[in-house]
Description:
This protein is α/β, with parallel strands linked by helices and 232 residues long. It has helices spanning 19-28, 60-74, 98-126, 147-167, 185-190, 202-213, and strands at residues 8-12, 32-37, 50-54, 79-82, 129-134, 172-179, 224-227.
Amino acid sequence: MIDLSGKLVLITGATGGLGRHVTTAFLEAGATVAGVSRSIRDEEFPRPRFKAFPAELSSSASAQALVAAVTARLGQIDALVHLVGGFAGGKHLAETDDAVLEQMLGVNFRSAFYMAKAVLPVMREAGAGRIVMIGSRAALEPPAGASAYSASKAALLALVRSIASEYRTAGITANAIVPGTIDTPTNRAAMPRADFSAWVDPRRIAEVTLWLVSDQAAAVTGAWIPVSGRSA
């Protein structure tokens, strides 16, 4: 059993289909959680070690303000678990609107870049930190009809390795989980005829995330860890 008592973990996308499982897992492991989403409330996770921080992550300034608010209220951030993401696709590249590209880069890459940029100085000053982000198998094996999404997730994976390279000697690790299709209500609604049993149980992703934040994973950085379930 991983014990994260005394650790402060900042989780973005805390109320999403994956985020609820990850947030619950960290609370059960003893961590204090600063949960972030657009309209999150303390009551969504009614535990004394959970604090809600409503925020948009559409700019560097908003990410900086979020990190400042969390540290002022709760203290040193030990880990960033960045779960914000989204999907848009269904058209081949030549038919993909520029707006879709900007949307995918914004939600999947820029939000991650802004959050890392905001939290890294805090972690560097402390001499320690963990960063975990959620990639996608589509970044490594891009399917047809998802060029903007796949490219945005590939950029996120490159970002993770850049952070790992730049902060390796600062006591900071950065890793990405690379899942297949995650079994969430949103994905079930979008693909009602799929074999849900082949999808990735979000609780398994939560377990890997816990490990990456724990002391046991102190020597692991720059990793892209596949969590694919039985999905093809």
